[in-house]
Amino acid sequence: MSETRKITVTVNGKTYSEEVQVRYTLADFLRQQLGLTGTHLGCEHGVCGACTILLDGRSARSCLMLAVQADGHEILTVEGIAPSEDKMHPLQEAFRDNHGLQCGFCTPGMLTTLIEFLRDNPDPTEWEVRVAISGNLCRCTGYQGIVAAALDAAQRLKAIKEAPRDDAASL
Amino acid sequence: MKPPPFSYHDPRSVDEAVGLLDALDNAKLLAGGQSLMPMLNFRYVLPDHVIDLNRIESLSYLRETNGALELGAMTRQRDIEFSPVVKQHFPILHEAILNVGHRQTRNRGTIGGSLCHLDPSAELVTMAAACDAVVSVAGPKGTREIAFADFPVAFMTSALEPNEILTGIKFPRWRAGHLYGFVEFARRHGDFAIASAAALLELDAKGRIERASLTLGGVAVAPVRMREVEKKLLGETPSEELFRALCEECRKVEAIADVHAPASYRQHLGAVMARRALVAAMNRGISA
């Protein structure tokens, strides 16, 4: 027996109406039912931060939520961060330029976490960045590149805001 | 790792939730999910029914009335963290909550969930004990209030009846300008504290202590108020020597042991954390 429920969620701007098992985590729903495998599952008990998504603009661990709880809510995953198919978000560009990733497993959670953080705190100190990503584990970089990328991204986002371009609205 | 099969209920009111809890066998209440979801994923808990409280809007509020902070059980830790009222009038709560997990978990985690889970090292549990909080509870027979001092009855076990739901918590306010300190020792930022301490002090016009609260978290099965130390602090002028001498008492607390630390280490850490919390409070008075 596996109870199901019909839910309607908006993921990266697209609305889905799906029948989902009530015991399914949001992470499994995103990955297995919607095929959005950019959200990574590391520990599945709320420690590693790889599965971080934004729920109504607030970061949350998608392994610690049931998919049914997302009914009627808006979700942003790593797939929805870039402004277009051929253009990366300044945060993604900063990660590439600062060696903010090696294997890339933690990157989706790092990016979603930092999207929220830089939105709320556009001019952070290095310490604030380190606290912000303290719930995201990375086994490759030693965090140095990620911290540098976050600080770099803050500068890039500020520059865009101060000199608005056509695509500024989508960031 | 997947949660086991269960039936899912998402009531819209406290009455509806109490009715479900009273009627259903082997039901678990789901608040912010930051403890229950890992336990479900690991299958440490195997409920037949999960009653999700997240759609009960009346359980989510933060307001100050008659000198007390009133929080709904489903108020998110994040909302407490960013509340100007909390920061201004209940600053120790603001300071403590920054040590609760991480941004991603505080966005979901609730104060009621933390209090009912009752992890002995949870910062909010320690805060409730330190501030003489009072919890409100709803059950089939109506509502009642429980002083937080009587809320923990055993390790991770509260005084709630199986068919009762925690609905809110009240933190009485300390006098404006009171001194406070919260410190904890954890292996990494955001980890569970091995030991923590919370100190609250009110001084008279001559700088002598006229009200004191000192609480240890993570040391025993539930937070411990160091009543003897509190009594001995009264009438004294704060000093590091005084705190150091009085905090030796903390080594006598009956401590728990686990994979992270033996009981003797927790007792030692308790004394150190208590002194540091009192010193932090004292230094606030000096810098003010």
Verbal overview:
The complex is a heterodimer of chains A (171) and B (288). Helices cover 33% and strands 16% of the residues of chain A. Chain A has 171 residues and is α+β, with helices and mostly antiparallel strands. Chain A folds into 2 domains: 4-80, Beta-grasp domain (Ubiquitin-like (UB roll)), CATH 3.10.20; 90-163, Orthogonal Bundle (DNA polymerase, domain 1). In chain A, β3 (52-55) and β4 form a beta hairpin. Chain A is globular and about 50 Å long. The termini of chain A are far apart. The mean pLDDT of chain A is 95. Chain B has helices at 14-23, 36-41, 77-81, 84-89, 91-97, 103-106, 111-117, 123-130, 227-233, 240-246, 263-287; strands spanning 7-9, 27-30, 49-52, 62-65, 68-72, 134-139, 142-147, 152-154, 157-158, 165-172, 179-185, 195-203, 209-217, 224-225. The model of chain B has no long low-confidence stretch (mean pLDDT 96). Chain B is α+β, with helices and mostly antiparallel strands. Chain B has a 5-stranded antiparallel sheet with strand order 4-5-10-6-7. In chain B, strands 11-12-13-14 form a 4-stranded antiparallel sheet. A 3-stranded parallel sheet of chain B has the order 1-3-2, with helices on one face. The interface between A and B is medium-sized, with 32 and 31 residues.
